[in-house]
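Sample pair:
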Amino acid sequence: MVYPNPVQIKFTFQVGSRHQRSITLSLISNAGRAHPISLAESLDAGTKAKIDISSMHLPTGIYLLKVQSDSASEILKVLLAK
């Protein structure tokens, strides 16, 4: 789950229960370019992380948030607004 959505420079991501260990996040533009998100701490199932993307300088638009872990992969739609 991602909120708020639309996103400006910060959002909260809640890790789903099906994800286990080695969780990585990346935003994928509509052109297919992946933008990895640096995480200050490791994420576990059920936890919430506050994500700051202000340093990424992304243009507004629709992005896909790819959540990858050892046990699962999922894609969430994110609207980036200024």
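The longest strand covers residues 61-68.
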